[in-house]
Amino acid sequence: MAIGSDSEAERPPRDVTAAAAEDLPEEPLERLRLVVTRVVQALGLRASVEVVETKRELRATVHDEDDLGLLIGKQGATIDALQHVATRAALRGREERKQVVVDASGYRERREAALRRSADRAVADALRFGRAVELEPMRSLERKVVHMYLRERVEVETHSEGDEPDRRLVVTPLRS
Question: Residue 100 pairs with which residues in a beta bridge?
Answer without folding.
Answer: 58
